[in-house]
Amino acid sequence: MKKFILSSTLLSAFVLVGAVVVSADEVKQAETPVGIEFKTEGPNEVVTGPYKGVLTLVHKPTAFEFGSHSATGALLTAEGKMEGKQYLVVSDDRDNDTVGTGVSDQNSKKGDPWKLTAKMDELKSGTETLPSKLILNLGAAKKYDLGTTPDGNGDIKPNPANDTSISDFASETHGVKITEKVELESDKNNEVVIMNKAKEDGKKIGVATQVESTNLIIQAPKTSAGKQYTSKVIWTLSTGI
In the chain, what are the domain boundaries? Predict the structure, then answer.
């Protein structure tokens, strides 16, 4: 088995805020932080190649963001804020008897089994951690067209993840199974299958699934007020299931 591991997708800008209490005849000063974050353009990020002749993850969500919330001590479910459609895209462009430079094993070939898994790192503010669960609701398997545009260096410039390159499979068989509801728990370091192709069929294929919605569930103590917590999701594409 050979694995292609990509650490990505920050859970960013998740801030827990508290209240300032003022008694009668008492004056208190409070501060409001001012900040700005310059983000990567677009809802998806292209994974570094190669793409031609290999099995690889092509696109992943740029970030999962959950905004600012009050730290009340109660269980909190935060809904993800999405701008545009987010996708996970895998391309299997292997030929027969591929000697791959990507995820392909030396003896793997087009249509051989593979799987994409995910796990969530700890949700942290400095050294402080919060137990949390990230829920990803995924759409049905869609067909992805990698494209044929040369990049000038012997590889392919992959098509973006959008409505032009992603379409329904219709009657075409693909053999890829999508886990529609994915639950990643930060304190258990559990690895969950996102999509997998379990049977060999000898076909080249591009598969996409849309991340239709996200939720982050945490137990946020009042001591978390004013802190920003971040994490990441680690995607692993592997052969030889």
Answer: 3-22+45-219
